[in-house]
Design goal:
Elements (H helix, E strand, L loop, with lengths): L1 H23 L12 E6 L4 H16 L3 E6 L6 H7 L1 H12 L3 E5 H7 L7 E3 L1 H10 L2 E4 L1
Parallel strand pairs: 1-2, 1-5, 2-3, 3-4
Length: 140
């Protein structure tokens, strides 16, 4: 009987040790209230979409998140839209005032002969960094 109790206690001890180890190896829990990093790739010139994306970016920053935006393709037309659409202009300016970062594809700007005063010119490597370094990446 003592041998049986000894074996059972060893099994329980082993199970408890394995279970504790399993708990220690759990992936990090993403607390929704903990700030995170968000990367946004904009490749559209649809005014309603851009306005909503910029509203979302500003809201995210106001909640303590770090947001970076990369403009690609038609997305580089955001500056012209910001000049002709007051709502977009206000949201872009608010984003910049909140110290949000905007990168724009240099090749896309050149092919459209678009002006650039609101973002840093970047390349595909900068887009890669936006994707790689942020925990959440959204594309519009």
């Amino acid at each position: 009987m003592k041998r049986f109790i000894f074996i059972i206690s060893l099994l329980i001890s082993s199970f408890a040790s394995s279970f504790a180890q399993l708990l220690d190896n759990q992936p990090e829990y993403n607390d929704p209230d903990k700030p995170t990093t968000i990367g946004i790739i904009i490749s559209t010139n649809d005014e309603e979409t851009i306005w909503n994306v910029m509203r979302f970016a500003n809201y995210s920053i106001e909640w303590g998140n770090k947001v970076s935006i990369f403009l690609l393709g038609k997305g580089v037309e955001i500056e012209g839209l910001a000049k002709t659409n007051k709502d977009i202009g206000d949201q872009v300016q608010k984003y910049l005032d909140l110290e949000g970062t905007i990168y724009g594809c240099q090749v896309c700007f050149q092919s459209r002969k678009a002006t650039n005063q609101i973002c840093k010119l970047g390349c595909i490597q900068d887009m890669y960094e936006v994707v790689k370094k942020n925990k959440v990446v959204l594309s519009f």
